């Protein structure tokens, strides 16, 4: 090979890679700014409207009006931060499920984890089944939802280890779990008294208003720990997108990586769903938007997915306060209404490409 060609092509290759990295960082910065704007809008809107200047003053100035400080710090700030954390958690869980299973339809919602959590919550709300004492009533329902959701995740993993089970079959199995837990939930609703029935229906719609500082700290800690674990395996997860055979030839322990990915993603999603209820489409649409923006490189796909999910749920929180005058819609309804057309757009865009 001509050494002149080699020496001439190397700088251009490095320049292309440098431009690509710069573009991806710029996109991450843009999503971060959009997320911050949605966060400020979420803090500003509500029964009482405040300007961004009033919001920033109440957050940083101790001389701000006491009423504004109480509303922001005790009511709106935990909810707005929960929207960011839950959105990021569901999107990160979704992107890693899609990565380790090699299926673009994998998500906490489509694998049955959300339906399992709803059934677990209904067991406590309708039948009073709980492993926690009555003194811990505020955490009894979330613990029920978390345990049943993790049992569903372990069931999926155990079946995925059987010989001849493909990733497509795992997604089909998750769809079967969705219908199974939905049927069990409807059976409980059929025999439930009116008060318990209304509580179950409200829980399954998803709501950020149930959050508080303690629950936010738990979800944030889980998100940080799981995200750092995924970040340490960024190279292996990127290689896995090339296929199992090629990833194995590169020295990636595919089986162990898939186990860790499924369990950590399920843990991340189950904790969030157990606290805020069923929120669909964020864990499915957010990763696809991030993948279109930054590609498959997990060094950028992981933070991009977290930012896209956080931005989506924060924007949905803003919409839930503005769609109906004087009333906040459950966040799960808004994400479904917005997520369906977004998913159709992504499907049509992918088909054209």
Automatic annotation (TrEMBL):
It comes from the Bacteria. InterPro entries: ABC_BtuC-like, ABC_transptr_permease_BtuC. Pfam families: FecCD (PF01032). The chain crosses the membrane at residues 70-93, 105-131, 137-157, 169-192, 212-231, 262-285, 300-319, 328-348. It comes from Alcaligenes aquatilis. The keyword Transmembrane helix applies. This is Iron ABC transporter permease. SUPFAM superfamilies: ABC transporter involved in vitamin B12 uptake, BtuC (SSF81345). It is found in: Cell membrane. Belongs to the binding-protein-dependent transport system permease family. FecCD subfamily.
């Amino acid at each position: 090979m001509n050494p002149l060609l080699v020496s001439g092509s190397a700088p251009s290759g490095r320049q292309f890679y440098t431009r690509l990295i710069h573009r991806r960082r710029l996109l991450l910065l843009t999503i971060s700014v959009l997320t911050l704007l949605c966060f400020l809008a979420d803090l500003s809107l509500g029964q009482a409207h405040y300007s961004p200047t009033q919001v920033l003053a109440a957050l940083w100035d101790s001389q701000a009006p006491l009423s504004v400080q109480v509303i922001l710090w005790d009511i709106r700030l935990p909810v707005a931060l929960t929207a960011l954390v839950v959105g990021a958690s569901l999107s990160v869980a979704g992107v890693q499920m899609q990565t380790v299973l090699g299926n673009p339809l994998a998500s906490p919602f489509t694998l049955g984890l959300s339906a399992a959590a709803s059934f677990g919550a209904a067991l406590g709300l309708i039948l009073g089944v709980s492993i926690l004492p009555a003194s811990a009533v505020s955490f009894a329902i979330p613990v029920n939802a978390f345990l049943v959701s993790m049992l569903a995740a372990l069931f999926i993993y155990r079946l995925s280890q059987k010989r001849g089970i493909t990733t497509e079959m795992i997604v089909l199995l998750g769809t079967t779990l969705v219908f199974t837990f939905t049927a069990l939930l409807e059976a409980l609703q059929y025999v439930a008294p009116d008060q318990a029935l209304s509580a179950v229906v409200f829980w399954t719609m998803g709501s950020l208003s149930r959050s508080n500082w303690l629950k936010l700290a738990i979800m944030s800690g889980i998100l940080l720990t799981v995200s750092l674990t995924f970040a340490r395996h960024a190279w292996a997860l990127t290689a896995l997108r090339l296929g199992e055979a090629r990833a194995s030839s590169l020295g990636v322990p595919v089986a162990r990586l898939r186990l860790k990915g499924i369990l950590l993603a399920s843990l991340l999603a189950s904790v969030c769903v157990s606290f805020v209820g069923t929120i669909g489409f964020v864990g499915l649409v957010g990763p696809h938007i991030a993948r279109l923006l930054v590609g498959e490189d997990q060094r950028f796909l992981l933070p991009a997915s977290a930012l896209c999910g956080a931005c989506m749920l924060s924007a949905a929180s803003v919409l839930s306060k503005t769609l109906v005058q004087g009333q906040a819609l459950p966040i799960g309804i808004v994400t479904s209404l917005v997520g369906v057309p977004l998913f159709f757009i992504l499907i049509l865009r992918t088909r054209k490409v």
